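Could someone model S-adenosylmethionine with this protein?
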Amino acid sequence: MTGAGFPKGDSWRQARRDMVSDQLRGRGIGDRHVLGAMAALPRERFIPPAMRNLAYADRAVPIGHGQTISQPYIVARMTEALNLQPGHRVLDVGTGSGYQAALLALLGARVFSIERIAELSASAVATLASLGIQGPELVVGDGSLGCPSGAPFDRILVAAGAPRVPVSLLDQLKENGQMVMPIGRASLQILVVVRRCDGQTVETPILPCRFVQLIGAEAWGSRC
Ligand code: SAM
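Reply:
Sure, complex below.
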């Protein structure tokens, strides 16, 4: 991240602290880097003004176009499960507001973030620029096909649910790489960690969750 220095002493700081202690640490998130980054990143700046009072609520919040920014706990759990190292190349599928992409950048990743709705991507570009976060490369396209221009990736995080792991994403994951994504029905999924080791794919379930649909060639059809 460049251009550091979020506003100090702003009225959101206490809400951010409470979110970290009650919703994250209090529910078992232990990675101090993830906790520190979420304590620093002004989530309210990623949320449309009309919904901003819900910025630190324990829930997903609408961001327009029928999409949401994920619940803080889910963001933390997914980020922790990535087991990220600084310098990792990370594909973030479903840019949405740009919050997750900013968080990954704050944690030292080289971030490629792909979103199918051009207006959301453009808004995320503007938000990141306004915060001086210059690292993430934002792309508009079908993330169920990955992002060939940035591949291969050490880590892939998918913030929308699919019926199965897209083959293109597996193909773009490095050996010993790791992916976190919700898999299951349209209405309910299981958050799964997918690891590639010795040419094998190992899936480990983490928790039940409910995400918006991943809509694309290797996910749900656009008329679903
Ligand atoms: N990570 C986001 C954030 O920090 O605000 C929230 C992601 S939101 C839960 C899921 C996003 O995935 C939506 O913005 C949706 O438009 C996007 N999406 C759905 N299908 C997609 C696809 N095939 N490729 C890229 N983005 C997709």
